[in-house]
Design brief:
The chain is mainly alpha-helical. It is about 60% helix and about 5% strand. A three-stranded antiparallel beta sheet has the order 1-3-2, with helices on one face. It starts with a helix and ends with a helix. It comes from Rhagologus leucostigma.
Length: about 190
């Protein structure tokens, strides 16, 4: 047990040293990035969760904006942006989808969204469409019933005026609602 504890302590110290070395290396890379004038963003190699958190911390201390992208744990990477070149929501969405950011394509998408919004607004100004089926059932069955049969059937059809009404002779219970309720209350009082 003492040997194992010593080995564990040695491994923990080694990991701690590696983290400190990694942090120093990231601080150097970030300072080089800040000094590079023509570079608005930098993409780092995929790294594990601890290394990404260290890099995010270094970027925050340096006054930069950082985001992680990628699907699974092995391929997640960090991109660091200078504050004056902070990414737009569209740019972040492109990186999240795994695409490279293309400003021309983003402008085209924005134009298409505006056009769709204008069309929707024009439809709203025209007013609501009258309710009804999207197509005429008569056209669907024209080959079966013909064109005149549907019109003749529509003219002769009348609604059943007694629909939903049950004649008194067909009812089992001929009492009124009040009588039934009074009888129920009386039974409850007897209990």
């Amino acid at each position: 047990a003492p040997e194992q504890a010593a080995r564990m302590k040695k491994l923990q110290e080694q990991e701690k040293r590696q983290k400190v070395e990694f942090r120093k290396r990231m601080e150097q890379e970030v300072s080089q990035f800040i000094q590079a004038t023509g570079e608005p963003r930098r993409r780092f190699q995929p790294m594990n969760k601890i290394e990404r958190s260290i890099l995010h911390d270094v970027a925050e201390v340096a006054g930069l904006t950082s985001f992680s992208f990628g699907d699974d744990e092995d391929s997640r990477y960090v991109m660091v942006f200078k504050k004056e070149f902070a990414p737009s929501d569209e740019e972040l969405d492109a990186y999240r989808r795994g695409e490279e950011w293309d400003p021309a394509r983003a402008e085209e998408r924005r134009r298409l969204r505006e056009l769709a919004a204008q069309q929707e607004e024009a439809e709203l100004e025209r007013g609501p469409t009258p309710p009804g089926p999207p197509n005429d059932y008569k056209d669907k069955y024209r080959h079966l019933i013909g064109s005149d049969a549907a019109k003749a059937a529509a003219r002769t059809m009348e609604a059943n005026k007694a629909y939903g009404c049950v004649p008194v002779a067909n009812k089992r219970d001929t009492r009124s609602i009040e009588e039934a309720m009074n009888e129920i209350r009386a039974k409850k009082r007897l209990r």
